[in-house]
Structures are given as C-alpha cells and as structure tokens.
Amino acid sequence: MELFERWESEVRGYSRAYPTVFKTASNARQVDEAGKSYLDFFGGAGVLNFGHNNPKMKEAIIDFIQSDGIPHSLDMATTTKREFMQAFVDTILKPRGMDYRMQFTGPTGTNAVEAALKLARRVTGRRRVIAFTNGFHGMTVGALAATANAYYRNAAGIPLHYVERLPFMHPLDGMDETYADPSAGYEPPAAILVEVIQAEGGVNVATKEWLQAIRQFAKDRGALFIIDDIQAGCGRTGSYFSFDGMDLDPDIITLAKGIGGFGTPLAMNLNKPEHDKHWSPGEHTGTFRGQGISFVAGKVAMDYFKDDSFMAEVRRKGEVMASRLQKMAQPGMEVRGRGMMQGIDTKDGTLAKKIVAECFRTGLLLGGCGSEGRVIKLIPPLTIEDADLNEGLDLLEKAMNAVLVPA
Amino acid sequence: MELFERWESEVRGYSRAYPTVFKTASNARQVDEAGKSYLDFFGGAGVLNFGHNNPKMKEAIIDFIQSDGIPHSLDMATTTKREFMQAFVDTILKPRGMDYRMQFTGPTGTNAVEAALKLARRVTGRRRVIAFTNGFHGMTVGALAATANAYYRNAAGIPLHYVERLPFMHPLDGMDETYADPSAGYEPPAAILVEVIQAEGGVNVATKEWLQAIRQFAKDRGALFIIDDIQAGCGRTGSYFSFDGMDLDPDIITLAKGIGGFGTPLAMNLNKPEHDKHWSPGEHTGTFRGQGISFVAGKVAMDYFKDDSFMAEVRRKGEVMASRLQKMAQPGMEVRGRGMMQGIDTKDGTLAKKIVAECFRTGLLLGGCGSEGRVIKLIPPLTIEDADLNEGLDLLEKAMNAVLVPA
Amino acid sequence: MELFERWESEVRGYSRAYPTVFKTASNARQVDEAGKSYLDFFGGAGVLNFGHNNPKMKEAIIDFIQSDGIPHSLDMATTTKREFMQAFVDTILKPRGMDYRMQFTGPTGTNAVEAALKLARRVTGRRRVIAFTNGFHGMTVGALAATANAYYRNAAGIPLHYVERLPFMHPLDGMDETYADPSAGYEPPAAILVEVIQAEGGVNVATKEWLQAIRQFAKDRGALFIIDDIQAGCGRTGSYFSFDGMDLDPDIITLAKGIGGFGTPLAMNLNKPEHDKHWSPGEHTGTFRGQGISFVAGKVAMDYFKDDSFMAEVRRKGEVMASRLQKMAQPGMEVRGRGMMQGIDTKDGTLAKKIVAECFRTGLLLGGCGSEGRVIKLIPPLTIEDADLNEGLDLLEKAMNAVLVPA
Amino acid sequence: MELFERWESEVRGYSRAYPTVFKTASNARQVDEAGKSYLDFFGGAGVLNFGHNNPKMKEAIIDFIQSDGIPHSLDMATTTKREFMQAFVDTILKPRGMDYRMQFTGPTGTNAVEAALKLARRVTGRRRVIAFTNGFHGMTVGALAATANAYYRNAAGIPLHYVERLPFMHPLDGMDETYADPSAGYEPPAAILVEVIQAEGGVNVATKEWLQAIRQFAKDRGALFIIDDIQAGCGRTGSYFSFDGMDLDPDIITLAKGIGGFGTPLAMNLNKPEHDKHWSPGEHTGTFRGQGISFVAGKVAMDYFKDDSFMAEVRRKGEVMASRLQKMAQPGMEVRGRGMMQGIDTKDGTLAKKIVAECFRTGLLLGGCGSEGRVIKLIPPLTIEDADLNEGLDLLEKAMNAVLVPA
C-alpha cells in the first residue's frame, strides 16, 4: 500500500475501507496479492452485474482485440457499435414497444445525467429541474446540483444552481395547483429527475403509485420525466429496467454502470424521439463516447435478457437476500430493496461502519450508503453462485452479531 | 448506416462527417466495412498517440484479461494500478523532480477539469476561475463554464457561472494592480486554467513568456495555476508535457485522452501535495476511476518515454508536418502548432469543411477546429510511419488544391 | 392625461387603472382636477395609515421647514432623527420590552428587505433564504428573489438565486428532520422571511400556530426569523406590529410604508443587537436614509400609539369592514383579513377588475391583489371617518351588484 | 449622541465621521445643536445641488402642503407630477432635441439602476451587463452586482451574477472582434453601464473619446448604452447632464439624488421610446414613486436651467476649486474633476482620513472616495456663495498643511 500512500491523492476512498491490494477477480470474488479471497457484495458500485471477468465477455473482448477491432471511435459508426445497438434494440426496446433514440455520452453516469438535463432544458426552454431528497446523480457540477448529499455538494466550492428539491416519496398534495399558479413563486420545471430506487441515498424504494403521480405532475406541468436508472437498471432489480411494468413512459432514461457489461465505461441515454430531435449535431460531445470493448461486452450482456430465466433467477436470489436480512435485522432496523439490490438500514452510521469493517476482515466486501452510511447495501453480481451468496450472507450475519454483541 | 439513422440520437456528429462504418484499425489507419482504408490524422481526437491497436498494448491487455486481472476497481488498490503508478512516477515525475499526487477522476477530460476546479476552490476558498478566450475544457457544467465556444455553452440551457474570461495571449498590462485593488471590482480568482496549446480552440500556441506572466499573476494573487494538458500532453508536442522546459511549476495538471494508451478511458490529475491535502476522502468520486485495461496499456505507454528517442522522432515528424503545411498554405492562411499537433488556419470555415470532406473522400481523416471550424488540425498517432505521414500530407495538399482551384 | 401618455414610461400602472389627474387629498379622500372626490380605500398602497395630509403632521412639517430643519442627512445624527428615534423607543419598543437596533436603510421597502437579507447571510454565513408562495418583498433583485409573483420575477430578465420557496400556511411535517439531514440535499437556510398577512399576495392571513412553528424551525436550524411588516405593520391590523401578542420574537423586522407617517419615504429595520453587531460601518448605505420630513411626521405618528384607543378604533372599524364584506360576498367568495386590512377573494380576476373599474367610476379607489388580482383589498386610512367608511363600503356593494347582475 | 450609540444600528457611518448632532442647515452650511457652523462640501452625497433649504423650494413646498397637494401618489397622475414633467420636458429635453420616456422608479439611485438593467435585459433578451472597475451603482443586489467595491460587494453574502467588468478608461483594442467571435467565450452583453465621472470610485473622469468608443461598441454588439448620471447629473459638472455635448445618445439615463431638488427622494430614468415600449404596465413598481414634495421642489430646480447663467457660474466656481486644489496638491497627488465635482487624490487612504477629520474639527464637511477613501471629494452645493467656497477651500488647505507638516 506504500506507493498509494506516497503518491495517490488524499481523495482516495475505497482503498482506505479495503486496505489491501487486489490482484485478480472472478465472478463474485476478488483476491488480493496475499491470496486472500473476498466475496464481492459491492459489485463495483453496481457495475459488475455479470460478475468480474465474465467468461463469455473475456472471450469476445480478446477476439475483438486480436482482430484489430476499433477500441476508440468517438461517435463514428463502427460495426461493433452497430452490433451492440442492434442487440439492445432487439432485446430490450422492441419487446417492450419502446421507441427511443440512443445517445452515447461521455462514458460515466454523471455525464449521462448532464446530457439528460441539457436536453430537458433545451426542449422546454426552462432552467429548473426538480430532484429529490437523498438522490444521487453524479459529481460534475450540472449533475451534482441534483445530488443531495452535502458532503459531495460542499466539495464543489460554488453554489449549485437550477435544481429544486422535493422530499422523496412525499405526497404531492396541492403541489400541482401551486406550481400552476403563476403568482405562487415556483418556476415551471424543465424536468423531474428521479431514481426508482435510490441506491446511494440509502436503498429507498419508490412505489409505483408515487412514481405515477410525479410522472403525471411532470406531464401536467410540461416537464420532462427523467428516470436515472444508472445503478438500478440493467437487470439489477429483477427486470431490465427498474421501472418495468410501472407504466411510467419516461421521456429520458439514463443508463451507465452495468451497460458496458465488463466493467469498462459506457453510458447511454434513451431519449424519446420527439425530444431527441431538439439536439443539434455535436452539441454534447465527449472524447470517450465510442468504447469498442464496452460495446462488445455490452452486446454479450444482452444474451442474459433474451428470455426471463436470468431475471427470474435474480428475483429468486433477491428474495433469499431479503429474507436472510429480515432475519438478521435487529429491532429498529429496516430491510429495503428490490431484486438483488437490498439494504439493511441500521439507523446508526457508526455501527454500520463497524459491520463493514468486520466483514472486510472476514472476507466480505460491501459498502454503506444513505445518511452517514448507516444503510448496508448488498449488490453482488447478478451471476453469483448460490453457495457464494449464502456464504456472504453468513459472513454478514456473523459480522452483525460480532459487532452488536461485543465479547 | 441505417441503424444509426433510425436509432442513434440526432446529437451524433462524426458519423455525419465520416459517413461510413469502420470495422478495423491499426496504427494510423482505419478500415471501413467495405474495405476502404483511411489514413487517420484525427487520432481519436488526440487520444491515439500510440496508434490504433498498438501491438505491445494488445498483448499486455490480452494477458491481463486472460489472467483475470481486475478490469474495474474504483479507487481500490490493485496490483495493476500500482504498476501503472510506479511506471509514471519513475518515468515522468522523478526525472523531472516533480512532486505531485496522482488523482484518478472519472475517466474523462471533463471530469478531470471538474475535479481540478473543485480542488482550487477548496484550497483558496474562492469561487471565480479565470479561463481564456477560445479555451476548451469539457462539456459538464462545471468545466463547460470554462469552455469558450458558444455552441457548446448554449447547449447547457442555463447560465454558466463562476468563470471569468480573459483574452488568450493578450498582455496582462495593469491587470495585476487592478486585481489587487479591492475597490476595482474583480474578485480574487481561485485559479487560472489554461491550455499551453489550445487544441479545439484552433491550435493556438501560447508563448513561454506569456505563460510565465500568467503563472506569476496567479502566484501574486494567491490563485492556483492549472494547466489543462489533456490534448497537448502525453508526448503530443515532442515532450511529455506540453510545458516541459518552460519553468511553469503548475499547481494542478489535468491529463486524460492519451494517458490510457489504448483508447480506453482514463483521467488523472497531478496535484501538488500542499493542495492535495485539502481533499477529504471520497469527496470527488466516480464509478469508473479504476480502469484495469487503461492501467495496463498506460503502463506500456510509459516505455515510450524512458529516453528521448521517441520524443525526438515526434519533433522530427512535427517539423515535416509544419514545413509541408507552410508550403500548402495560401496567402492569408496561417500554420500553427508544436510537435505533432499542427494546424492550418484557412480563415474560412466553409472552405475548411470542404477540404475535410474532400480528404474523407480520398481517404484521409482529419477535423476542423477553432472559430467556425476554420482551422484544419493534424494530430496523427505519434507512432505513424513516415510513409503514411507523407501520404496523408499529400492527400491534404491535393484536397486543398482541388477545393481551392475549382475545375 | 396627454402629457403622461406622451412622456411617461409605458411601465406606468395606476394612472391606467385610475385614468384621471388628482389634485388634492385630505384624510380618506382624493379629489381630481375636475373636482370629483374619490374615497380612498387604496391608502397609497398601505402607506397612508394616518390619512392624506394629516393636519398635525402638516403643521409639524411646515414648522420644520420654516425653521431650516435638515431635510436630508444620510446617516448623520440630527436632532430631528433623535426625536423620532426617542419616540419610537418610548412608544413602541420599551412598552413591549423589545431590544432592537434601528437601521435606517434606503427609504423603500425593497431596500429594507435587501438589508435584512444581507444581515441574515452575514450572521449565519449561509446563502439560501426561505420565502413563501405568494409572498411579496420588493422589486430589486435581492428582494425580488423572495417575491413570488412570476410577472414581477420575469421582468428581472435574469434567474433569481438563493431563495427557496415553501408553501404559505402549509404544515411543516417532517421538514425539520429533512433539513437536519445533511444527505437530504437542503442547504441550511440563512433566514426565513415571512409576512404575517400577505398583502399583495391576496390578504392571506397566517395563524399564530403556524408562525410559531416556522419560528421554531428557524431557531432549530440556526436561521434568522425575519418578519416583513412593511404593509401589515404600523397599526394596520389593530396592533402596532401585525404579530403583537404572538410570542414570535423575530430576529429582524422590516418596516417602511407607514413608518414615515405622511407618505414621504422612510424605511427602518429592527435588528436584534446580537445580529446587528455583525454589521461593519457603512456596509449597507444609501443616499436617502436620513429623511427629515419623514422623521418629523413619523414622530407625530407615534402619538397614535401612546395608548390603545386608536388601535381599538382600528379593530372596531375593521370589524365593520369584515362584516359588511361577509354580507356582500357571493357563494364561493371568501373574506379574509385582520384589523383594517380586509380582502374579498372573488376567485375571478376578470370579475375583480370589473368591480374595481366600477368603483372608480362611482368614486371609490381600491385595488386587486393575489393571483390575477382576484382579491379586492381594502386598506383605507386608519383615520377614516365612519361616514366615509360606510359610504365606501356602500359603493363597493353597489359595484359588486352592478357587475354581478348585469342589467 | 448617546441615543444613537444605544439604539441605532452598528451599520451607521457618517455619524461616526462627523460625531455631532446637526440641527439646522441653510445653503452650504450645517449647524449642530451646540451652534457650531460647518461648511458643507459634502452636499448630501451629491443630492444638495441647490443647497440646504433652498428658499424658493421651501416656499413652494409649504404652499403645496398647505393647499393639500398630494404628497404620495405612486404612479397615479397628479397635477403636481404633470407640472414637474412639463418643466423637465420644456427645460431639459426639448432644447436638446432629446426624445425619452420618463420612468419614475422607487426614489433611490439603486432602484433606478435596477430598473434600467431590467429594461436592458428585456429589450435584448440577454443577461450579462458590462460595468467598469471602480464603478458605483447602488446597494441592492441587482445594482450591487455592477458596483465594484469589494467592501460593499462582500456585504451581499451571496455571489453577484450577470455583470462583467472591464477596466475604466482602458482602450478597447481588439475587444470588438473578440466579442463578435462566438467561439471566444464572451456572451453578448445586454448593456454597458457607465458613469461619465466616477464619483464614489474616486472622481475618475472619462474622456469623450473613450465614451464614444464604448458607445460604438455597445451599438455594434446590440447592447444598450446606459449612463448612470445619478451623482454627476443635474448640473453638477457645469451642464445639466454630465455628457452634454459629447454626442453619446444614451439608450437609458438614470437620474436620482439632485433631481428632487430639496433632498427629498426622487429617481427618474430616461428611456428611449423604442426601448421603453418593451415594458408592460406595472412590471417594475415601488411604493414611493410618486413624491409630491420632490415634484414641487424638482420643478423649482428647473428654473436654474432655463438659460446658461447658472451653469456658467458652476463652471466658473469649478475652475476656482480646481485651481485652488492644484495649488494645494503635494507632489504625487492628483487633482481630477469637472465643474463642481472636484477631487484630490492623495494616494494615501490614511492621510485622506486624517485630512477629513481635521476639516471636520475646523468646520468643513467633506468625504473620501476611491480606493481606501484616498481621494478627497468636493461637491458643495452649486449655489454656494463665493465667500463660503473660498472659506471652505482655505480650511481644506490648512487641514492639509496641518496633517502633512506635523507640528
């Protein structure tokens, strides 16, 4: 670790929480250079839905590289990109009857959000965006304005503008009339930006009813309805989109993290055609929009969604997780989540930190989220073997017991 | 191309300028699916300093993948990252006596700039940043505020705050006193953000003297001096940093594009330790900060800088480019650049577009930059063979003649 | 009127609603140059609490001018200013046990609000101020940011920053915890700015309970509690301050309009000493802060508050107004107010405009307020004779009947 | 002074510089309650162009009050207002062939500036306004953004937006092309706001040539050209407007301070009709726009401008002041000004403060301005008698000698 301490920025975080040097990884396991194997319930912060070094992706990527495929193409057309897009259209969009334009932004979630907000402001000619308490949307100034956490916001060093915050899952009673009254003082919003499940915010799950209400509010007020599905999408919750079956019809969907399959960067927004046409060519650019390796692996990932079997497995394993967590939960704790994004709200940031540290010690990687990190979030690879899943849950249970009942 | 027209966003740009579907690429050539080979003087917008599919990098990446190296690790410590960092320290920092902390941001240039501005604002407790006319620093709202071009700025849909603009290469006479006078009305700046060569801005080359003057101004006013070396760094100008030998001692250096070697995303800021210590852990995060493939290829790239031979070649080829361009230049045109970033300012955006189109037709990829795209920029891979370089220059000359002397 | 149409700005408003040229005025009557007498229920927009040309004030002002008193002194000390301040201390502050510092700002309400917001931001080191739907606080950019009405806001031509809006009289359930959670996304507010009765906003009356709740919220969150008593203060509601007896203990109170007594400008903030001491000398200035004539008349006005008899009369007349309005109100209409600020919400802006016009025709001046001007506001001089009050109410009733039951 | 120390806000300023209680005033003299008479070269911060208690104005005001004229009328039409407007049209506008609409804003300079900026933004649909180093335009947030002084700006407690600053009297070389280039990064400005003589900024006098250049720049860039003539207008410089004879044709002129004649508040913008028509009724309002006393006295003031004799006297007395100051000036000091606004730049704020204090001690009121208050500004009433003028200048000379040559 010396080199990191001497030469890496003080801003580094996870290398402090997990103070070891990792060398290899495979599906749901990371191994450090001393040979210690860790179960990975952290999942690369929601990226590694298909596991570390997914074998089919490895093979496809190596083939791609060996055949001099184009690793970096900005938004030029390539055969690799076309294959990815075709697979996404055939596997995801067409079966759902969804008509969207695919916009490849700079390959990070924050960039996807920035692009979505630009488009919403362009379409409506308005500036203010409504986002929600405890929402997380990224670190660059445009997206950070929508991110709630003060620790991140304060790092900006400048006031963050043009975002209005409403309480997540709070009833909208009277809000519609208030926003409609020009003398009430609310500017008509350009967009409502919401996560179906707030991952960083503490695994807070929105109900279908509330989401439909804010979707209707957006429609009534001429605002775009944007779902940030960066962490909860790509199969994480037991369906490809976290909002499948909710009849929400978002105007823009932001995707990143899992979309590139292998852990290499990719971000893609889905824009409704009637909004997308407001873009002029090259208005939102970015160097790394055309990532060949991510297209190749992302195309392999589509295979998981050709029928419901993989998603059914995710739902089944998600139930295992939820029921085990329910059993572990102490009085006052709360278990929340959907599919294979599950969290246990310990209501105590210090306690949660201790549990995470004890898990690391015993060979399980996971992280805290929510206020003061008090919610322990479990997002293992969707491809995790049952044995590993159970072992990880056992380790967590032991860690909780160890921390809660001091010797 | 049909699939792209039907399903990709209207924002796409390069696939319009280069209306073909590329399939493979090798060093300075891209081949489309019809088998037509193009010389690449566009270089992935400055990313592909070491060519498409650099053979040593291919080999190293395949080894890495086959051995289950960790492709995605956020800012956990990995052996791969350590090797990259060690190579960078040994090859770049130590020989120059530079002491900087390496901060891996979200793997895009715009994210690197956002992080740099955050740090400068944190260190100084100030808000305003000075940037320059025609500067380019990225597309996310924090960096976009520093970017000059109105086409990009307007796409934000919101006013861009906390950046003050000064004319690039304009003498600073009297500015120091004016900024020092508290009743003059200028806020003391948090930072001065400058490119040594404005790439997107039109291949505008700053002199050492002017850079030293603004560096001194920054020091006098307690502002951080930030060099954005995202496009001009990593060997492009004939030295690793574009400012090598200028005695500028920047407080922060932003790097991206070429740093990952292979065209996969990576971004890294170099922060002086006395500034870097103002970061708290995890204040600026991002999912894709730990890119194993980029670390592997980026480490291979370091081999090019172990002695001066590669840089000498770049300088030699840069001179070839410059002298050929000088010969092509019509009266009123201007040739500018350093090393293998060269531009010819046609002073006419429409003309430049025609030349770029004619080049594409005849098998040469390059792009326009500057006001109305009137400057044709040449940034081929630094590894380009002499034969390819000359052939590309021949094609450009012919295209200029064809366009300038209509049949 | 010709001269006004030819030479005055298109921005003029009241001369359009009352298209005649007024020549003299006395207590509750204005007379135009044709000799037509109008009952004045508009009261100079809440300024003329003591009537037009109050005889005692006239006498005092003439004495002052004849003896070469100082009409304009900025914030120099003058005997006239001292006498005003002494009277205010003795009559208003001491009997209530209130300890405040008097700050004379530029002599307009908007300037008083700007000063109050500056002080709150200075004291707390925070930026955001909470204001309420339908609130009105002035027209200059700092105060306008707190003003709700879109018609006024849009005239700014720039986004208005650093004010957050909450619904007036809406329960605060859960708000306290949300604001306390640093990861929820709300910045701690510098101040809460509220009117006890929203005058321009539509004669919306806050309850003591709600005011106490937001006062407590302010205290809990370290924010200053600012009452804008510019229109509702100075005796208008039947007590000197609109919040007398509510146990609210505001940190800052803004006063203007009625404070100068005669209709000449004056504005004065009352700042708690522990906040006031954060001012440095001359940080908030303004040319016309020291208005001799306003000090003289304002001192005379203090005589009205030496005992409760005048306020008792105001309460009695207010009840007359309220009960007459209740009788006039059609089903669906709503009567609101306190003391001699009463409004009838017709729920129909077009109807209200017709009633106002008919009143003007028949010799009664009053104005609309609230959304689309649908609330007819009655704020006659507090000194109005019963006969005039009744005559005015008769005229209003007739106008309503005339407009509601078209011939 | 006790009462002021106990009860007045800490923000008070002049009562600290002039620690006595004034009782009466007449023309160029103020007398304190102890009977000590002070020569007034401070002139109510530029308001009292026609002296304290101008006899003709006293008479007219008393007549007005006794005949129940309307002291407060918002923007209703009154006979008094009509007479003022008629006199202004006949005396000032028509002889100059000027066609402007008169807009009565809230009666303070800062409000006039806020209204002017609103109109400029409305007309152009742009946001940014160019103002100059050391400019002073007021204290409310919209105007304060244009004010340069950091002491005032910092009191805002919030960042000030939408104003860009250029160096006063600095040549514009290249600026026109830079602003015209959409990729340079400057937003097209809504307006250029300038003082012909910066009064608070240090009696800095712009040349006709520079003013014409920025006027042309404004025209070329589609920006409105706004002259803030609040302190330098109304005859102060020897002509009614400070820019008379400069062929500047401003789009908006802001007036306040001297326009009300007697020291009672009034502010008035002159808007070119083609701009003024962009206002909608009541978009910029304010309670105290219709000040009867100020209209009456302001009309009397017009008598001074019916022929050139008064202005000739001002110019003559201005020359006396300038030549006396030139004699007093020590090496390194600088005398600047025009007409009866003259300043001596001592280049030393501490020294200037001592001189001002010594003057107060010996019976002369004046104030510092410019950086650190190092410029002593002389703005006595234009109506000052020669004897008083000379006596004041003698006192200043003695004070300078006393301070410069310590016993």
Assembly classification: homotetramer
Give the integer mean of the pLDDT values of chain A: 97
Percent of residues of chain A in helical segments? 25-40%
Biggest chain contact: A-B, 114 and 113 residues
Would you give the CATH topology of the largest domain in chain A? Aspartate Aminotransferase, domain 2
The CATH class of the largest domain in chain A turns out to be Alpha Beta
Shape of chain A: globular
Helical segment count of chain A = 15
CATH level-4 homologous superfamily of the largest domain in chain A: Type I PLP-dependent aspartate aminotransferase-like (Major domain)
User: How many independent structural domains of chain A?
Assistant: 2
Give the strand tally of chain A: 18
The order of strands across the largest sheet of chain A is 5-13-12-11-8-6-7
CATH architecture of the largest domain in chain A: 3-Layer(aba) Sandwich
Residue share in β-strands of chain A: 15-25%
Family (chains A, B, C, D): Belongs to the class-III pyridoxal-phosphate-dependent aminotransferase family.
Cofactor (chains A, B, C, D): pyridoxal 5'-phosphate
GO molecular function (chains A, B, C, D): transaminase activity
InterPro entries (chains A, B, C, D): Aminotrans_3, Aminotrans_3_PPA_site, Dat, PyrdxlP-dep_Trfase, PyrdxlP-dep_Trfase_major, PyrdxlP-dep_Trfase_small
